[in-house]
Amino acid sequence: MSTTPLRLLSAVALTAGLALTVPAAASAAPGSCAVGTWQLTKYRLKSHIDEATANAKGGEGTRLTITRKSASYDFSRAKKVFTKGVVEGDSYTETDTFRKKLAFKSSLTGKKMGSLTLKRKSATGNATISSIVGGQPTGSAKLAKNYRAGLEDPFIPVFVQYTCTSKTLKLVLEADGPMTTITSVHQYRRV
Asked: Where is the signal peptide (predicted)?
């Protein structure tokens, strides 16, 4: 299993007791406009953890299908995700390639805005991530296995707030803690 700088930092930050922006409890969303199949049009991540920073973009073409009780990703048309960052004063670049499919049981709240929570331990599928850091391949990993083991990738956050219309879906993760800020925004259009 490969652990690249961005993914390692994000997994540590997201499991280190950060305060996530969590809405008040709401009932399941049978009429949520988030239900459906979506294609990613824009992704941006900004992360500052202690002395490490990262900015990521890419992944366009990823498909996300949301039901009331599940969420699944199809990376067969996904473009690469590019990250530039600094760790302990050293700059790095990372290119991540996501392939195949990944699915989770999930919970959905709200109708035009609310939250989507992926149940990490329920991860299934054959999806992989292959990484190149600083021009050097670092190997590949099975995403479902990583999620079940408690590792997360910021490109596939386990908790997001959403807003949607009949044609667009915006997923936002905001996490704050001591010396830490992470903001991840995914914009989708309905397929």
From this structure: 1-28
